[in-house]
Structures are given as C-alpha cells and as structure tokens.
Amino acid sequence: MEGDSTRRKGGVLFDQYVALTPPPAKKVDSREPIHKPNNSAINTASGRLVQCLFVHNKREIWSLAVYVLLNATAFWWKCSLFPWDRVVGYGMCVAKGSAQVVVVNCCLALLLLSRSILHFVKAQPFLWRVFPLEHHMELHKLCGYAVFVSALTHSAAHVVNLAYTYTVTNQLDLDSSFYVRHVPLLHPHLPPLLEVAADLPMWTGGFLLVLLLVALPPSFFLSCRRRYHNAFWC
C-alpha cells in the first residue's frame, strides 16, 4: 500500500532504509566557542593515578627514598669535613664526597651478593613488608651505576683540582690553601706536574678507573650476566 510505513525499497524495509541513511554533515561555525575539557576532572584523574601508583609501589618508593637519603647523607657528611678552599673552592669536597658514595655503594653491592646474608634477611617477615626484597638484584645494579658515576666524578674532581692548583701564581694563596696543605704530594712546595702524575696514587686511581670501564660494559649484555651469574656468590 502507498501509505504503509513498512513498504519495501530494494528488498529492505523503508523504515530500516531511512534509519541506515547517514544524517547530513553539520556545518561548524568557527565563531562558536570551543569547549575545553574540565581541568578539575583532569586533576582528579591525575591525582587518582598518582595515588594508585603510590599504593601499588609503596615499598619500592620507600626503599628508593632510603637509598637516596643514605647516599646524600654520606656525601654531605664527608663534604662537611673539608672547608671551602681559596684555590680549588669546593673541589676537594666534591672529590671526597663522591669517594664516600663509592664506598657506600660498594658495601651495599657486596652485601647483596652474599647468599647467607640474603637468606637471613629474607627470613624476616617484617622486612618483606617494608622493603621489596624480591628486587635485590635491581638494587645491586643501581649500586653499580652509582659507583660508576661517583668514580668518574671523583677522578674528574681531582683532575680539576690539580689544574686549578697549577694555575695559581700567588704563593700566599697556595700557602693558605687547605687542599695544598693536606695533600702530601703538593706540600711544602709544588713539584712539577709530570712528577705528580707519575706518583703511585695517580697510577692506582687510574688503574682502578680503567678496570671499572672494562668491567661495566659487558654487564649490559644478558648473555654475560647469565654465564657468570654465580661467579661472585658467597
């Protein structure tokens, strides 16, 4: 029938054909204001995300904060023993502080390689609730990176200190320098620079730094880590 709303058009009901026909494109007026997202909703979602991350990673965040605080305390304590110097400024503080960070991280890295210590620590239930002991190898690698960066900082600080010392022309500044008076190689008179570079502390420091540069790159390869995983376990 003509007035029947259920009449067919090409095998499809007319009402279905009308429903499937897309509406005409709406013209957008450039003068209409653009509705920006609600900032409060975004801030609320961000706050919930941060809260969720903190809840699920609370032990990791707490342990990382303790680790950073331990290194910062060791660096600050060692720096506080050496005053500002007229020749090298805070160069001696940086050198000694970074050396103390190396000592702290070397101790932590070695403790994490002791099976007896790890077995004792993992047997304490309250420690599991505070520290993520299942990630002890991640802390071991983090200590290795900290040793590498601190050793480079220590060596660079000593090189800069020597360079500043040999550029000073005023003998009064050298005599009043805390750095010069407490380094046996430089007191009571500055020897030639080549003589200082050839002394035993320079050679041992350079040798240890070369060993570190040689040993660290292979640790980035998974095959090397797996092959020699048990080499240093005790």
Automatic annotation (TrEMBL):
InterPro entries: RBOH/FRE (IPR050369). The chain crosses the membrane at residues 61-77, 97-121, 142-164, 200-222. Keywords: Membrane, Oxidoreductase, Transmembrane, Transmembrane helix. One of its GO terms (cellular component) is plasma membrane. It comes from the Eukaryota. GO terms for molecular function: oxidoreductase activity. PANTHER family: NADPH OXIDASE, SUPEROXIDE-GENERATING NADPH OXIDASE HEAVY CHAIN SUBUNIT A. This is Uncharacterized protein. The lineage of its organism: Eukaryota, Sar, Stramenopiles, Oomycota, Saprolegniomycetes.
